[in-house]
Amino acid sequence: MRCQYSVYEKTEDKTLEEALAHEKIILQQIANPSPRIIIRPKISVRKDVQKILLSLLILFSVLALTGKYLLSGSWFLMFCFCAGLLYCRLFMKKILITMIILYQKYAPEDIRGACLFEPCCSEYMRISLEKYGTVRGLMKGLKRLSRCRYPNGGIDEP
Predict the structure, then answer these.
(1) Which of 34, 53, 80, 148 has an alpha carbon 20 to 30 Å from 70's alpha carbon atom?
(2) For residue 68, is pLDDT > 70?
(3) Tens-place pLDDT, residues 33-66
């Protein structure tokens, strides 16, 4: 949905009637949104999901088996625990991107079409994760999700 949001910019030069007319146009566009084209990714993420689930299963089973021994001071078990944390740190970006692709592929059209920005919020999150890394990209994406409501909207590139 592309709306004219100029009414919320500087209104010093506009008369009150022009501002009200622009606001009326915006409210009509929100009430009767034009259909948004939903692009579904044609990427197969089955292998990625299987790898992630298998590795998380192994990680949690090792943590469950060695959890009670961590406090006893065994160096090998501490090494396993730190290796598991490092694994999560390194592959969190891949896990998040896979979850976003699954959302883009299977989310209903009325939910995906409700975004007011271009590119949509899920695509913005994916691009920012690839561009800025896990922590900074996730923060930028969450900030964008918090702004995705009326009167915000428009074109916003990461």
Answers:
(1) 53
(2) no
(3) 556 677 777 777 788 888 888 877 877 777 677 6
Cβ contacts of 13 within 8 Å, gap of 6 or more: none
Instruction: Look up residue 6 and give its two tokens.
Output: 């100029």
Contact (CB, 8 A) for 129 and 138: yes
Does residue 102 contact residue 119 with C-beta atoms inside 8 Å?
Answer: no
Residue 158's pLDDT is 74
Distance CA 43, CA 94 (A): 14
User: Given its phi and psi angles, is residue 73 left (phi above 0), alpha (psi -120 to 50 degrees) or beta?
Assistant: left
CB atoms < 10 A from the CB of 124, how many? 23
Amino acid letter, 125: M
73: its two tokens: 């001071």
Give the CB-side neighbour count of residue 12, counting CA atoms within 13 A. 1
